[in-house]
Amino acid sequence: MNNINNTIAALELAQIGWVVPDIHAAVQFLSNALGINFPQPEHVRAQDVGLSYYGQSLAGEWLTTQAYNGGTFIELVQPVSGQSMFHDYLARYPAGGTQHIAFRLPVSDFERITGDLRKQGYAVIGEVDHPIARMAFFDTYQTLGVVTEIMGITPEGWEAVEQMKKAR
Question: What's the pLDDT tens digit per position in 30-41?
Answer without folding.
Answer: 999 999 899 999
